[in-house]
Amino acid sequence: MYKIVSKQEVGLKVQSYEIYAPEIAKNAKAGQFIIFRIDDKGERVPLTIVSTNPQEGLVRIIFQETGKSTEHLASLCKGDCIRDFVGPLGHPTEIKKYGTVIAVAGGVGVAEVLPVIKVLRKVGNKIITVVGARSKDLIILENELRQESDLLLFATNDGTYGVRGFVTDVLRDIISKEKSDMMYVIGPVSMMQAVAELTREKRIHTLVSLNPIMLDGTGMCGACRVTIDGKMKFACVDGPEFNGHSVNWEELVSRLALFKDLEKISVNKFKNEQEHKCYRK
Amino acid sequence: MLQKIKMPERDPKIRKKDFKQVNSGYSQEEMLKEAIRCLQCKNPMCRSGCPVEINIPSFIKFLARNKPGKAVEVLKQKNNLPVVCGRVCPQENQCEKFCILSKKGESICIGNLERYAADFAAENPDDNITIKKNGIKIVVVGSGPAGLTCGGDLLKMGYDVTIYESLHDSGGVLRYGIPEFRLPKEVLDTEINSLKKLGMKIVLNTLVGRTKTVRDLFSEGYKAVFVAVGAGLPVFPRVPGENLNRIYCANEFLVRVNLMHSYDFPAYDTPVYKGKNVVVVGGGNTAMDSARTAVRLGAESVKLIYRRTENEMPARKEERLHAKEEGVEFIILTNPVKFVGDETKFVKSVECVKMELGESDDSGRRRSHKVEGSNYTIETDMVILALGVHPNPILPSLTEGLNTDSQGYLVIDNNYMTSIPGIFAGGDIVGGNTVIEAMGMGKKAAKAMAEYIHLIKCSL
What we know:
CATH superfamily of the largest domain in chain A: Nucleotide-binding domain of ferredoxin-NADP reductase (FNR) module
Structural class of chain B: alpha/beta
Strand order of the largest sheet of chain A: 12-11-10-9-13-14-17
Largest interface: A-B, 42 and 43 residues
Number of strands of chain A: 17
Oligomer: heterodimer
Shape of chain B: globular
Largest sheet of chain A: 7 strands, mixed
Distance between the termini of chain B: 61 Å
CATH topology of the largest domain in chain A: Rossmann fold
Shape of chain A: globular
Number of helices of chain B: 17
CATH class of the largest domain in chain A: Alpha Beta
Distance between the termini of chain A: 21 Å
Number of domains of chain A: 3
Order of helices and strands of chain A: EEHEEEEHEEEHEHEEHEHEEEHEHH
Radius of gyration of chain B: 23 Å
CATH class of the largest domain in chain B: Alpha Beta
Strand order of the largest sheet of chain B: 3-2-1-4-16
Largest sheet of chain B: 5 strands, parallel
């Protein structure tokens, strides 16, 4: 069993947890993920590792309540335990000095970009972080991002913060003014694809972190297969990071839709059950 | 000559609607009738057909005297998991093939007898086993058939054994791969629990290579490591459309159903699509398991496509027979060339080509060739690919100095030791095909590891 040592709401329906998992805390590196399973009937869900505290044996995860398992996880309290927590999985991010790195994050991807910019900055890269959100009140972890970035910019769809529009609007402006040596993108697939299209023309090396459906997370089942440069890769063991210009985005989008109808059934069942339970804060 | 006693089976019409065991096992009377048929050969050929060389006439002799407890003692000298082997071993190609009576088609049903004895022991556990512990720590990576066997043997020799497992439950392929109707999980749990009672530690959720490295294990005081991480990476046909939605690898489909209980969705959270017209590609036991699982999930039709004929299928005869009884349609000499999807990228048909058999290959199986222009289409809403697996690359690739061959299998010497002293390996990661082969390797490796530890102790 793995204990929830701290719980903090960092945004609207976005939770930050620290889980006691000393071996993972000791060995995890930026870019890797864990898989959790809440209880005996739970599914295996991958989440990026946001940070670790090896001294205290803690692994921090941040997640948005978007489906049955994340809603269930959010309903737990500090001190509660989850059944399974395995990792660190996947390849760590390759850390080297590129020069200027532009980190692009959308939605809860902000949490996932944090560990990567932290280590990239440590080795001497200049970090420009661009965050996209629908609206100002959906932006999370602004202070933490500011600490790890040389420049922090925002794009909101409704114009309530930063530039009105998309991250690509901000990026077009930056790359016209400044030499960009690497782009690191994590967020919704449509955003990652749009950024990759933009940087392809400009020939900027672009890494994306993919989030296909996963099951075992150890390269055994093939559920997370993605097509990279026409070749089949497994995101769990070959990734999760890939060259954004090589990804077959259309296929990734369609494969993510595989269980949409069944997910709804699961969410509704959970909500019904929750109504009959006391919701603890 | 007395005829063999058939294994009682549940009616296909009933059993295809649930996941309960198909073979219900001999009654005492049936067991006795079968056991007394054994000729007790002076030079028993059956034994030479057994990968772990069980003293088959001896255990059958005890059964014939209605002493199943004694019979199991004989079995367990060579096989730690007889309840598993009695169910899943391909006996017709091993022990039973060599039985002298097989010439008349009436070989002793050794597997059925093994199962009877093993089930008896599981229901009447012998808690009097005492082990003299030596306090030396040994670690096993992977809790599948090879790992459990090796760990179990070392445990009984007195070693302090810990098994690391990456998944959230133990058993490896016995848990995630082989369906409930062939190997009930309750039976597997009984075996694993009896090892735990003897002091075996099983640590779940630990992916050795990532959660901790093999080097970490040595610095934690383990004196030797047995790597039994099994198969990984499924094989794909490499044809257009293979990534369309609802084209599953058998591994994914079976992990969902067996390990994650998705047949009971939404009571369990993990979903699986329940296909109506399912196409399974492949001719091995995994293909049969997939097809029969699809039947149980309520498919209206299940077609199994195989490029050769039924004679060349690697699946056991019993599994093929059971699959057909349950309504699986075999389409032989056929291979998929293309999967076609609808506008939302869900598979809707398989384009196939007819095959014909040519000359034999090195393994003695006949090669198959395409019949040009014979393409035709099968409508489907779900495809399951059961084309085999590659060895699991994670631990080898993350352990410096651990040599693999060109196909990714770990290279071992005659003593099951890898290129790193103190690290041994067995099972699918070194290339094996069956549960019993993996167990055989685990057993031999355990002996070699004990000898290795004795040697390093003497040299200190």
